[in-house]
Amino acid sequence: xxxxxxxxxxxxxxxxxxxxxVREQNVYAEIKPYNKITCDDIKNADYKGIIFTGGPxxxxxxxxxxxxxxxLNLGIPVLGICYGAQLLAFMAEGKVSSADDxxxxxNAVLYANDSPLFQGVPQKSDCxxxxxxxxSEVPKGFTVTATTKNCPAAAFENKQKGLFGVQFHPEVTHTxxxxxxxxxxxxxxxxxxxxxxxxxxxxxxxxxxxxxxNGKKVLLALxxxxxxxxxxxxxxxxxxxxxxxxxxxxxxxxxxxxxxxENTFKGKFGMNLIRVNAExxxxxxxxxxxxxxxxxxxxxxxxxRVFEEEGKKLGKIDVLAQGTIYPDxxxxxxxxxxxxxxxxxxxxxxxxxxxxxxAEPLADLFKDEVREVxxxxxxxxxxxxRQPFPGPGLAVRVMGEITKEKLKxxxxxxxxxxxxxxxxPIKKETNQYFAxxxxxxxxxxxxxxxxxxxxxxxRSVTTDDFMTAEWxxxxxxxxxRTSNRxxxxxxxxxxxVYDITSKPPATVEWE
Length: 511
Ligand code: XMP
Known about the structure:
Elements (H helix, E strand, L loop, with lengths): L3 E6 L5 H10 L3 E6 L5 H6 L4 E4 L25 E4 L1 H9 L3 E4 L5 E9 L11 E8 L1 E5 L5 E6 L2 E8 L4 E4 L11 H12 L8 H15 L5 E4 L4 H14 L3 E7 L7 H12 L3 E6 L1 H8 L5 H22 L5 E3 L4 H7 L16 H4 L4 E3 L7 H10 L4 H4 L19 H19 L9 E15 L2 E14 L7 E2 L4 H14 L3 E6 L13
Parallel strand pairs: 1-2, 1-3, 3-4, 4-11, 12-13, 12-15, 13-14, 15-16, 18-20
Antiparallel strand pairs: 5-8, 6-7, 6-9, 9-10, 10-11, 17-18, 18-19
Helix pairs in contact: 5-6, 5-12, 6-12, 14-15
The structure holds xanthosine-5'-monophosphate.
The site of xanthosine-5'-monophosphate (XMP) has 15 residues, from loops.
């Protein structure tokens, strides 16, 4: 049984990151919202340690999250971070104050004293702060173990009781020794041995689903994206042919991608995969449509219709499996932000397929962990590290009306661009790169004759989270070779341009 640490979530913005940093140290971290787990549950769950996360609030605000102070008497070590540290001080009857002139946001110099948390941390180092309230008086029995210019108790502790608070954020990379501090908490204080490995996750998950899904018919919509592919491989290991994967090929995938998905899952793994070749059907629905949101809507709806029809052919389905990963759950809980583009994935499926329950084997994992699982399960590298691809596929990269011919041109040009990037060190600096077929025509010369053909745009972005992105500084020689090859090999394209717009103001995709 793996050791585990509880990340008690008070609503801060770095909560996922905390869990991920803990897991990086080979300790399993479980995130639970503070109002979904009682002190008794914690007592009975065998946690090696508890981390209180940050939160956007002030402890004196009645509406802000509080917790049963009994948690400090369970004998389980606690590390409070930011709001979590203030809450810890408040629960132990210290004093928290608020003063605008003491707000800190950004880097600060941390002066650290002797503490189990600061082993291997120099007396002076950088840390990242983001707060207005601060602990002005530590509770009885606690000592201050670090300060910054504006924060008299940047870290404090009651070593006997195993209670620690840090006002700064050890989980972000701006805190120079953040990793060491978290590791110290896990290993020096909580006495973890670090026995969490991805292999354990795979073994445990396979075992769980072997039991839970025994004899049940499970359906999964496979898109060929990382998440649904890894979910499929994992469930296949658990239940074999009882897993039925339906892969709707809408014809809007990149060159040869449909065959690659089929060859991988049906060929290599021998999975029960149904590939539905629905290109004509989608193109028919999209005929004459030029407005981007309408394209997205049509594709989303048609996808669901095709899936529904396939589902009906399969008879009674017991379980619908989905490749939901942890950030999806967090994002969907975050309320409504303005709809810039209607993203569609498999969101509408639960409404049209009837089933008894849902299985989401990756719901606790982050993207990089999902990739690790994928590789361990033997999925090909190019699939596991596949760049993001929009659900509506190439439809949002063919400007104007989508035709078979335009799609074919785009697929060829896009394959050339990707090949050139893949063979160049710049690949490490780009997170997404693709071609866009514009609806504009331009005059050129091919051979000795006048040519009149499409303008093709190349797009490449560098980003952490795709919410904002910079255009990638692709070396001129790569651009030159790509342009020469595209205009040389595809006669219908006469001009190639490179998109130098960041997000914002542009989005990553053109439509
Ligand atoms: P935008 O164009 O919104 O893209 O800046 C941000 C990221 O999201 C991808 N994208 C989509 N992904 N369904 C998806 O699953 C969609 O409908 C969709 N539209 C955009 C885009 O490729 C980029 O990675």
